Protein backbone atom coordinates (compact mmCIF):
# COMPACT_ATOMS: atom_id res chain seq x y z
CA UNK A 1 0.00 0.00 0.00
CA UNK A 2 2.90 2.32 0.73
CA UNK A 3 4.22 1.75 -2.81
CA UNK A 4 1.00 3.12 -4.40
CA UNK A 5 0.66 5.99 -1.95
CA UNK A 6 2.78 8.50 -3.96
CA UNK A 7 0.78 7.85 -7.13
CA UNK A 8 -2.54 8.27 -5.33
CA UNK A 9 -1.41 11.43 -3.57
CA UNK A 10 0.01 12.83 -6.81
CA UNK A 11 -3.24 12.22 -8.66
CA UNK A 12 -5.30 13.70 -5.81
CA UNK A 13 -3.07 16.69 -5.30
CA UNK A 14 -2.61 17.57 -8.96
CA UNK A 15 -6.05 19.10 -9.04
CA UNK A 16 -5.31 21.41 -6.11
CA UNK A 17 -1.53 21.99 -6.16
CA UNK A 18 0.23 21.98 -9.47
CA UNK A 19 3.60 20.37 -8.98
CA UNK A 20 6.40 19.29 -11.22
CA UNK A 21 6.63 15.54 -11.77
CA UNK A 22 10.23 15.38 -10.62
CA UNK A 23 9.35 16.75 -7.10
CA UNK A 24 6.37 14.60 -6.28
CA UNK A 25 8.13 11.36 -5.38
CA UNK A 26 10.81 12.85 -3.02
CA UNK A 27 8.30 15.01 -1.13
CA UNK A 28 5.81 12.25 -0.50
CA UNK A 29 8.63 9.77 0.30
CA UNK A 30 9.81 12.11 3.03
CA UNK A 31 6.28 12.36 4.39
CA UNK A 32 5.92 8.58 4.44
CA UNK A 33 9.24 8.15 6.29
CA UNK A 34 8.26 10.81 8.85
CA UNK A 35 4.98 9.06 9.56
CA UNK A 36 6.70 5.71 9.83
CA UNK A 37 9.37 6.91 12.27
CA UNK A 38 6.66 8.68 14.26
CA UNK A 39 4.89 5.38 14.77
CA UNK A 40 8.20 3.78 15.79
CA UNK A 41 8.81 6.47 18.46
CA UNK A 42 5.31 6.07 19.85
CA UNK A 43 5.77 2.30 20.07
CA UNK A 44 9.11 2.69 21.90
CA UNK A 45 7.62 5.08 24.47
CA UNK A 46 4.70 2.75 25.14
CA UNK A 47 7.06 -0.20 25.59
CA UNK A 48 9.25 1.77 28.02
CA UNK A 49 6.26 2.78 30.16
CA UNK A 50 5.03 -0.82 30.18
CA UNK A 51 8.40 -2.11 31.45
CA UNK A 52 8.56 0.61 34.16
CA UNK A 53 5.09 -0.27 35.40
CA UNK A 54 6.05 -3.95 35.53
CA UNK A 55 9.13 -3.14 37.62
CA UNK A 56 7.07 -1.05 40.07
CA UNK A 57 4.58 -3.86 40.53
CA UNK A 58 7.42 -6.31 41.14
CA UNK A 59 8.90 -4.00 43.79
CA UNK A 60 5.57 -3.69 45.59
CA UNK A 61 5.19 -7.46 45.64
CA UNK A 62 8.71 -7.82 47.09
CA UNK A 63 7.98 -5.28 49.83
CA UNK A 64 4.74 -7.02 50.69
CA UNK A 65 6.55 -10.35 51.01
CA UNK A 66 9.21 -8.74 53.27
CA UNK A 67 6.62 -7.04 55.48
CA UNK A 68 4.66 -10.27 55.87
CA UNK A 69 7.78 -12.31 56.65
CA UNK A 70 8.32 -13.22 60.32
CA UNK A 71 10.72 -11.02 62.31
CA UNK A 72 13.97 -12.84 63.04
CA UNK A 73 16.04 -11.41 65.93
CA UNK A 74 19.78 -11.69 65.86
CA UNK A 75 21.31 -13.25 68.91
CA UNK A 76 23.19 -10.61 70.94
CA UNK A 77 26.93 -10.93 70.96
CA UNK A 78 28.53 -11.72 74.29
CA UNK A 79 30.29 -8.75 75.89
CA UNK A 80 33.73 -10.33 75.60
CA UNK A 81 33.32 -12.03 72.23
CA UNK A 82 35.61 -11.09 69.30
CA UNK A 83 32.65 -9.87 67.29
CA UNK A 84 31.52 -7.48 70.01
CA UNK A 85 35.06 -6.15 70.46
CA UNK A 86 35.46 -5.54 66.72
CA UNK A 87 32.09 -3.79 66.54
CA UNK A 88 33.00 -1.49 69.46
CA UNK A 89 36.36 -0.70 67.85
CA UNK A 90 34.66 0.13 64.55
CA UNK A 91 32.12 2.37 66.26
CA UNK A 92 34.85 4.13 68.23
CA UNK A 93 36.94 4.67 65.11
CA UNK A 94 33.93 6.07 63.29
CA UNK A 95 33.21 8.55 66.08
CA UNK A 96 36.84 9.66 66.22
CA UNK A 97 37.06 10.11 62.45
CA UNK A 98 33.87 12.15 62.43
CA UNK A 99 35.06 14.37 65.28
CA UNK A 100 38.44 14.94 63.63
CA UNK A 101 36.86 15.68 60.25
CA UNK A 102 34.56 18.30 61.77
CA UNK A 103 37.22 19.89 63.95
CA UNK A 104 38.86 23.06 62.58
CA UNK A 105 42.15 22.28 64.36
CA UNK A 106 44.66 19.49 63.74
CA UNK A 107 43.83 16.09 65.32
CA UNK A 108 46.71 16.44 67.80
CA UNK A 109 45.12 19.59 69.21
CA UNK A 110 41.60 18.22 69.51
CA UNK A 111 40.74 18.20 73.22
CA UNK A 112 38.43 15.74 74.89
CA UNK A 113 34.84 16.91 75.27
CA UNK A 114 33.87 18.20 78.71
CA UNK A 115 30.54 16.95 79.89
CA UNK A 116 28.56 19.00 82.40
CA UNK A 117 27.61 17.81 85.81
CA UNK A 118 24.57 15.53 85.50
CA UNK A 119 22.85 17.38 88.25
CA UNK A 120 23.06 20.57 86.21
CA UNK A 121 21.19 19.13 83.28
CA UNK A 122 17.43 19.80 82.99
CA UNK A 123 15.05 16.93 83.50
CA UNK A 124 12.79 15.84 80.64
CA UNK A 125 10.34 14.02 82.91
CA UNK A 126 6.99 15.64 83.54
CA UNK A 127 6.41 16.19 87.28
CA UNK A 128 3.50 14.41 88.91
CA UNK A 129 0.61 16.13 90.67
CA UNK A 130 2.22 15.48 94.05
CA UNK A 131 5.49 16.98 92.86
CA UNK A 132 3.66 20.04 91.51
CA UNK A 133 2.05 20.48 94.91
CA UNK A 134 5.41 20.18 96.67
CA UNK A 135 6.96 22.67 94.25
CA UNK A 136 4.20 25.15 95.02
CA UNK A 137 4.67 24.75 98.77
CA UNK A 138 8.43 25.18 98.46
CA UNK A 139 8.01 28.29 96.30
CA UNK A 140 5.58 29.79 98.80
CA UNK A 141 7.92 29.11 101.72
CA UNK A 142 10.86 30.58 99.84
CA UNK A 143 8.93 33.71 98.87
CA UNK A 144 7.89 34.09 102.52
CA UNK A 145 11.59 33.77 103.49
CA UNK A 146 10.97 30.82 105.79
CA UNK A 147 14.65 29.83 105.77
CA UNK A 148 15.90 28.57 109.12
CA UNK A 149 19.56 28.16 110.00
CA UNK A 150 21.12 25.22 111.80
CA UNK A 151 24.72 24.82 112.95
CA UNK A 152 26.72 21.62 113.08
CA UNK A 153 30.09 21.81 114.85
CA UNK A 154 33.42 20.69 113.43
CA UNK A 155 35.55 19.38 116.28
CA UNK A 156 39.23 18.65 116.73
CA UNK A 157 40.54 15.13 117.18
CA UNK A 158 41.02 13.51 119.59
CA UNK A 159 39.89 16.14 122.13
CA UNK A 160 36.54 17.01 120.51
CA UNK A 161 36.79 20.79 120.91
CA UNK A 162 34.67 22.91 118.60
CA UNK A 163 36.81 24.68 116.01
CA UNK A 164 34.15 26.05 113.68
CA UNK A 165 30.57 25.54 112.56
CA UNK A 166 28.96 24.62 109.29
CA UNK A 167 25.81 26.59 108.53
CA UNK A 168 23.03 24.37 107.23
CA UNK A 169 19.79 25.84 105.88
CA UNK A 170 16.33 24.39 106.31
CA UNK A 171 13.03 25.45 104.76
CA UNK A 172 9.83 25.38 106.80
CA UNK A 173 6.60 24.87 104.87
CA UNK A 174 3.28 26.44 105.81
CA UNK A 175 2.14 23.19 107.43
CA UNK A 176 5.14 23.25 109.78
CA UNK A 177 7.19 20.59 107.94
CA UNK A 178 10.93 21.27 108.06
CA UNK A 179 12.71 20.26 104.85
CA UNK A 180 16.40 19.57 104.44
CA UNK A 181 18.47 20.77 101.47
CA UNK A 182 18.13 17.44 99.66
CA UNK A 183 14.36 17.89 99.58
CA UNK A 184 13.98 21.52 98.50
CA UNK A 185 17.22 22.53 96.77
CA UNK A 186 16.51 20.64 93.51
CA UNK A 187 13.19 22.47 93.26
CA UNK A 188 14.81 25.87 93.78
CA UNK A 189 17.52 25.01 91.27
CA UNK A 190 14.92 23.99 88.69
CA UNK A 191 13.16 27.34 89.13
CA UNK A 192 16.41 29.33 88.84
CA UNK A 193 16.44 30.53 92.47
CA UNK A 194 19.55 28.74 93.72
CA UNK A 195 21.75 31.85 93.62
CA UNK A 196 19.16 33.92 95.50
CA UNK A 197 18.95 31.16 98.12
CA UNK A 198 22.75 31.07 98.54
CA UNK A 199 22.90 34.84 99.02
CA UNK A 200 20.24 34.70 101.74
CA UNK A 201 22.10 31.90 103.50
CA UNK A 202 25.36 33.87 103.29
CA UNK A 203 23.77 36.96 104.82
CA UNK A 204 22.31 34.89 107.68
CA UNK A 205 25.67 33.16 108.22
CA UNK A 206 27.37 36.56 108.45
CA UNK A 207 24.89 37.52 111.19
CA UNK A 208 25.74 34.28 113.04
CA UNK A 209 29.48 34.96 112.71
CA UNK A 210 28.98 38.47 114.07
CA UNK A 211 27.13 37.01 117.05
CA UNK A 212 30.00 34.57 117.72
CA UNK A 213 32.56 37.37 117.54
CA UNK A 214 30.51 39.43 120.00
CA UNK A 215 30.57 36.49 122.42
CA UNK A 216 34.35 36.25 122.14
CA UNK A 217 34.35 33.00 120.18
CA UNK A 218 37.09 32.31 117.66
CA UNK A 219 34.99 29.82 115.73
CA UNK A 220 34.39 30.50 112.07
CA UNK A 221 31.32 29.67 109.98
CA UNK A 222 31.31 27.58 106.81
CA UNK A 223 28.72 28.35 104.11
CA UNK A 224 27.80 25.83 101.40
CA UNK A 225 27.47 27.10 97.83
CA UNK A 226 25.48 25.08 95.31
CA UNK A 227 26.96 24.01 91.99
CA UNK A 228 24.17 25.82 90.12
CA UNK A 229 25.00 29.13 91.79
CA UNK A 230 28.74 28.77 91.16
CA UNK A 231 28.14 28.08 87.48
CA UNK A 232 25.89 31.14 87.17
CA UNK A 233 27.64 34.03 85.49
CA UNK A 234 28.57 36.80 87.93
CA UNK A 235 27.52 34.99 91.11
CA UNK A 236 30.98 34.69 92.70
CA UNK A 237 31.70 38.29 91.76
CA UNK A 238 28.55 39.39 93.60
CA UNK A 239 29.72 37.65 96.79
CA UNK A 240 32.66 40.04 97.00
CA UNK A 241 30.21 42.92 97.28
CA UNK A 242 28.18 41.13 99.96
CA UNK A 243 31.27 40.41 102.07
CA UNK A 244 32.61 43.95 101.63
CA UNK A 245 29.62 45.24 103.62
CA UNK A 246 31.14 43.66 106.75
CA UNK A 247 34.95 43.92 106.55
CA UNK A 248 35.23 42.92 110.21
CA UNK A 249 33.96 39.43 109.29
CA UNK A 250 36.53 38.73 106.57
CA UNK A 251 38.25 35.51 107.52
CA UNK A 252 35.32 34.43 109.67
CA UNK A 253 33.29 33.11 106.73
CA UNK A 254 34.49 30.02 104.83
CA UNK A 255 32.98 29.45 101.38
CA UNK A 256 32.50 25.73 100.76
CA UNK A 257 32.34 24.54 97.15
CA UNK A 258 31.78 20.99 95.86
CA UNK A 259 34.64 18.97 94.44
CA UNK A 260 33.12 18.98 90.96
CA UNK A 261 33.11 22.80 90.85
CA UNK A 262 36.79 22.98 91.83
CA UNK A 263 37.68 20.60 89.01
CA UNK A 264 35.84 22.59 86.34
CA UNK A 265 36.89 26.20 86.92
CA UNK A 266 37.04 28.43 83.87
CA UNK A 267 38.99 31.68 83.55
CA UNK A 268 36.13 33.84 84.88
CA UNK A 269 35.58 31.67 87.97
CA UNK A 270 39.32 31.63 88.72
CA UNK A 271 39.44 35.41 88.48
CA UNK A 272 36.47 35.78 90.86
CA UNK A 273 38.04 33.36 93.34
CA UNK A 274 41.31 35.31 93.16
CA UNK A 275 39.47 38.50 94.10
CA UNK A 276 37.82 36.80 97.08
CA UNK A 277 41.14 35.23 98.10
CA UNK A 278 42.83 38.65 98.09
CA UNK A 279 40.14 39.89 100.47
CA UNK A 280 41.09 37.13 102.90
CA UNK A 281 38.18 34.78 102.27
CA UNK A 282 39.18 31.13 102.94
CA UNK A 283 37.74 28.32 100.85
CA UNK A 284 36.86 24.72 101.55
CA UNK A 285 36.49 21.70 99.27
CA UNK A 286 33.23 19.94 100.08
CA UNK A 287 31.10 17.03 98.81
CA UNK A 288 34.00 14.94 97.56
CA UNK A 289 33.14 11.75 95.68
CA UNK A 290 36.68 10.33 95.53
CA UNK A 291 40.07 10.74 97.18
CA UNK A 292 42.05 12.10 94.22
CA UNK A 293 43.57 15.54 94.76
CA UNK A 294 46.75 17.58 94.34
CA UNK A 295 47.64 19.45 97.57
CA UNK A 296 49.76 22.09 95.82
CA UNK A 297 47.09 22.85 93.22
CA UNK A 298 44.43 23.17 95.92
CA UNK A 299 46.61 25.53 97.95
CA UNK A 300 47.18 27.74 94.90
CA UNK A 301 43.40 28.13 94.58
CA UNK A 302 43.11 29.38 98.16
CA UNK A 303 41.64 26.24 99.71
CA UNK A 304 42.29 26.10 103.46
CA UNK A 305 39.98 23.23 104.44
CA UNK A 306 39.26 19.96 102.69
CA UNK A 307 36.38 17.68 103.60
CA UNK A 308 36.61 14.00 102.72
CA UNK A 309 34.06 11.27 103.53
CA UNK A 310 35.15 9.33 106.59
CA UNK A 311 33.94 6.00 105.20
CA UNK A 312 36.10 6.36 102.08
CA UNK A 313 39.21 7.09 104.12
CA UNK A 314 38.55 4.20 106.50
CA UNK A 315 37.98 1.84 103.58
CA UNK A 316 41.25 3.00 102.00
CA UNK A 317 43.06 2.45 105.33
CA UNK A 318 41.97 -1.18 105.27
CA UNK A 319 43.83 -1.74 101.98
CA UNK A 320 47.45 -2.88 102.00
CA UNK A 321 48.66 0.17 100.05
CA UNK A 322 46.28 2.61 101.73
CA UNK A 323 44.55 3.51 98.46
CA UNK A 324 40.82 3.56 97.86
CA UNK A 325 40.91 3.34 94.05
CA UNK A 326 43.28 4.71 91.45
CA UNK A 327 46.66 6.41 91.78
CA UNK A 328 45.84 8.67 94.75
CA UNK A 329 48.13 9.09 97.74
CA UNK A 330 48.25 6.68 100.63
CA UNK A 331 45.47 7.71 102.97
CA UNK A 332 48.01 7.86 105.80
CA UNK A 333 49.75 10.68 103.94
CA UNK A 334 46.63 12.79 103.44
CA UNK A 335 46.81 14.89 106.58
CA UNK A 336 50.61 15.56 106.47
CA UNK A 337 50.56 16.41 102.74
CA UNK A 338 47.70 18.85 103.17
CA UNK A 339 49.15 20.36 106.34
CA UNK A 340 52.39 21.22 104.52
CA UNK A 341 50.31 23.27 102.09
CA UNK A 342 48.35 25.04 104.81
CA UNK A 343 45.20 22.93 104.35
CA UNK A 344 43.43 21.21 107.23
CA UNK A 345 41.73 17.88 106.59
CA UNK A 346 38.18 17.33 107.85
CA UNK A 347 36.56 13.90 108.00
CA UNK A 348 32.85 14.40 107.38
CA UNK A 349 29.85 12.15 107.92
CA UNK A 350 31.34 10.50 111.00
CA UNK A 351 28.23 8.61 112.06
CA UNK A 352 29.57 5.99 114.52
CA UNK A 353 31.89 6.24 117.52
CA UNK A 354 33.89 3.29 116.17
CA UNK A 355 35.10 5.47 113.29
CA UNK A 356 36.82 8.00 115.56
CA UNK A 357 39.84 5.87 116.64
CA UNK A 358 40.61 4.93 113.04
CA UNK A 359 40.52 8.59 112.00
CA UNK A 360 42.82 9.49 114.88
CA UNK A 361 45.30 6.84 113.75
CA UNK A 362 45.24 8.39 110.27
CA UNK A 363 46.18 11.76 111.76
CA UNK A 364 42.94 13.51 110.74
CA UNK A 365 42.88 16.79 112.71
CA UNK A 366 39.18 17.70 112.36
CA UNK A 367 35.93 15.75 112.08
CA UNK A 368 32.21 16.37 111.68
CA UNK A 369 29.19 14.13 112.02
CA UNK A 370 26.41 12.79 114.22
CA UNK A 371 28.98 10.92 116.31
CA UNK A 372 29.83 14.31 117.85
CA UNK A 373 26.71 16.44 117.37
CA UNK A 374 23.93 16.91 114.89
CA UNK A 375 22.76 20.19 113.38
CA UNK A 376 21.05 22.41 115.92
CA UNK A 377 18.70 25.32 115.18
CA UNK A 378 19.82 28.90 115.61
CA UNK A 379 17.55 31.42 117.26
CA UNK A 380 15.81 33.56 114.62
CA UNK A 381 17.01 36.80 116.19
CA UNK A 382 20.64 35.62 115.99
CA UNK A 383 20.49 34.75 112.28
CA UNK A 384 18.32 37.69 111.39
CA UNK A 385 15.58 35.41 110.12
CA UNK A 386 12.12 36.67 109.32
CA UNK A 387 9.55 35.14 111.62
CA UNK A 388 6.60 34.78 109.27
CA UNK A 389 3.19 34.32 110.96
CA UNK A 390 1.68 30.85 110.88
CA UNK A 391 -1.58 30.33 108.99
CA UNK A 392 -4.81 30.21 110.92
CA UNK A 393 -5.48 26.88 112.60
CA UNK A 394 -1.82 25.85 112.83
CA UNK A 395 -0.85 27.70 116.01
CA UNK A 396 -1.15 24.56 118.11
CA UNK A 397 -0.23 22.04 115.40
CA UNK A 398 2.86 19.90 116.06
CA UNK A 399 6.03 20.66 114.12
CA UNK A 400 7.11 17.92 111.74
CA UNK A 401 10.87 17.48 111.79
CA UNK A 402 13.09 15.47 109.45
CA UNK A 403 16.68 14.47 109.97
CA UNK A 404 18.84 15.79 107.15
CA UNK A 405 22.55 16.45 106.82
Overview of this protein structure:
The protein has 405 residues and is α/β, with parallel strands linked by helices. It has a domain at 147-377: EAL domain (TIM Barrel). It contains 15 helices and ten strands. It has helices spanning 5-13, 21-68, 82-102, 129-143, 181-190, 194-214, 227-231, 235-244, 259-263, 267-278, 295-300, 310-317, 334-340, 355-361, 380-383; strands at residues 147-156, 162-172, 178-179, 220-224, 253-258, 283-286, 303-309, 344-348, 366-367, 376-377. An eight-stranded mixed beta barrel has the order 1-2-4-5-6-7-8-9, surrounded by four helices. Strand 2 and strand 3 form a beta hairpin. Helix 6 (194-214) runs parallel beside helix 8 (235-244). The chain is elongated and about 140 Å long. The model is unreliable at 95-113 and 387-405 (pLDDT under 50).
| Helical proportion, percent range | 40-55%
Low-confidence stretches: 95-113, 387-405
Distance between the termini: 110 Å
Shape from CA axes? elongated
The rounded Rg comes to 41 Å
Biggest sheet features: 8 strands, mixed, barrel
Overall mean pLDDT: 78
Number of strands: 10
Q: What is the helix tally?
A: 15
CATH architectural grouping of the domain at 147-377: Alpha-Beta Barrel
CATH C-level class of the domain at 147-377: Alpha Beta
CATH superfamily of the domain at 147-377: EAL domain
Question: What is the CATH topology assignment of the domain at 147-377?
Answer: TIM Barrel
- Helices and strands, in order, run as HHHHEEEHHEHHEHHEHEHHEHEEH
